[in-house]
Design goal:
Number of strands: 0
Largest sheet: none
Helix content: 55-70%
Structural class: mainly alpha
Strand content: under 5%
Distance between the termini: 64 Å
Number of domains: 1
Length: 463
């Protein structure tokens, strides 16, 4: 009988090619990034607040945590994991757990804290699982375009949800876009982060996918009506790219530090020191940051009562501590119904104490700025560092008017975590450009062909 009818044992039998390790890693990172940013309940205004008690989110994000941990232990070099663990973040997470134990309801606070830690694990996987810069670019391009596309699709398919309506608790936002997210103040920062990703892709030569992501994200951002975000995006572009264009790239951390100090003075500073308040009213009469100054004054008074350990994680806003306060008839907002302090830094202090805020400032800004200065002068490392620094700057300034630090799987918090640990990553390890020869690559919207070729790479520690 012919061997074509019944192949011998020693004769190879052709079959479908299995995906290689690099392909699987890139696919998993893409799925993790997309799921954590969009959540398991897109187009649900209450999704961000329901993660703790929603069975779909509990099971879904539990799976995300398991997959993230599996990816970190399976695909990531142990030296990378060890290099990302630093003293200040270890101390900050320890204080975070102390605040959970100090909560009014420790078991409920712990369940919420688990979501926060799962989000952090997912971002670490998204950052470190891709094997090279092309894989990272694929994750950003595919996920970014999918998120933006989903938000635009929502305007057509779910216009009553993807656009703020007049029947909501905030009728002043009617007509503003929020896409698949719970609020315009979430959609705007996400689009900002994706626009930074689009610029990064363009700088790497992914002109079509990067340009499309940049333009579509900025256009959506313009329709969210988020004035703060719209103003901060070009500022982040300028503060990171500007010094580099004139050969002063190492001055970026100094510029960032000065801008942070100025933002502190211009926001919390004016409610702390009367002369600054008087000056602000002369420069901009009636300036209250849409009523936030009254809220910050109240926060500072409450922080002074428990300065060391605060009120405990998830144990201030929405609790009797706030709800039993007298109604402030002379303020724009009723603090009894506020869900957060609209200032991430003050919220850390009121929940976890002033010492934790000090540690957070070091972990969030001092260490990343030092990491930026240590980034080796290699093309891929520099491009990624600029992307992460833009994201860090934007989220840092946004936190003066919004609150997202340690806030479950809030997309803005996830972008912030990605930026902070991203700077640590690129400052310590060399990022390979691609393992696919240039002559074998074709210019496509997304270079899928590069994902289908086997590759073996290692991560070289930069000196």
């Amino acid at each position: 009988m012919s061997s074509t009818a019944r192949p011998r044992r020693t004769e190879p039998v052709s079959g479908p090619a299995l995906p290689d390790r690099r392909t699987v890693a890139t696919l998993l990172a893409t799925l993790l990034f997309g799921i954590t940013i969009i959540s398991f309940r897109p187009f649900s205004p209450m999704a961000a607040e329901a993660t703790g008690g929603d069975i779909v989110n509990q099971l879904g994000f539990g799976a995300v945590g398991g997959v993230s941990l599996f990816c970190l232990l399976t695909f990531v070099d142990r030296r990378v994991l060890a290099g990302l663990v630093g003293f200040w973040w270890a101390l900050l997470l320890g204080l975070f757990l102390v605040s959970v134990a100090n909560a009014a309801d420790p078991s409920s606070a712990f369940r919420t804290a688990v979501f926060t830690l799962i989000g952090m694990l997912a971002m670490l996987a998204v950052l470190t699982v891709p094997r090279d810069a092309d894989a990272i670019s694929t994750v950003l391009a595919v996920t970014g375009l999918a998120i933006v596309g989903l938000c635009y699709a929502g305007l057509v398919v779910y216009p009553d949800i993807a656009v703020h309506g007049t029947d909501s608790t905030e009728p002043q936002h009617a007509g503003l876009w929020r896409g698949a997210f719970s609020h315009k103040n979430v959609a705007g920062p996400v689009m900002a982060g994706l626009s930074f990703a689009g610029l990064y892709l363009m700088r790497r030569g992914w002109r079509w996918s990067g340009g499309l992501l940049l333009v579509s994200a900025l256009f959506f951002l313009a329709h969210t009506g988020s004035k703060t975000t719209t103003g901060l995006v070009p500022l982040a572009f300028l503060l990171v790219m500007g010094p580099g264009l004139v050969g002063l790239r190492r001055a970026v951390p100094l510029v960032f530090a000065i801008a942070l100090a100025a933002a502190t003075v211009a926001t919390v500073g004016i409610v702390v020191w009367q002369p600054l308040w008087d000056l602000s009213q002369q420069v901009s009469p009636g300036l209250t940051y849409t009523g936030r100054t009254t809220l910050w004054t109240f926060l500072l008074e409450m922080i002074a009562k428990k300065p060391w350990f605060g009120y405990g994680y998830e144990s201030f806003w929405g609790t009797l501590v706030v709800q039993l306060q007298d109604k402030p008839f002379d303020s724009d907002w009723d603090i009894r119904g506020i869900v957060h302090g609209h200032n991430g830094y003050l919220d850390i202090a009121v929940l976890m104490g002033i010492p934790t805020l000090v540690v957070a400032v070091v972990a969030f800004f001092v260490v990343p700025m030092a990491d930026f200065l240590r980034v080796p002068p290699k093309r891929e490392n520099v491009f990624l560092a600029d992307f992460f620094m833009m994201t860090l700057m934007f989220t840092a300034f946004n936190a003066f008017l919004e609150s997202f630090f340690f806030r479950r799987v809030d997309p803005v918090w996830l972008f912030f975590v990605l930026a902070v640990f991203g700077l640590r990553y690129v400052s310590r390890f060399t990022i390979p450009g691609s393992v696919v020869p240039r002559e074998r690559r074709a210019p496509k919207l997304v270079d899928w062909a590069a994902l289908l070729r086997p590759a073996r790479i290692g991560i070289a520690r930069s000196r």
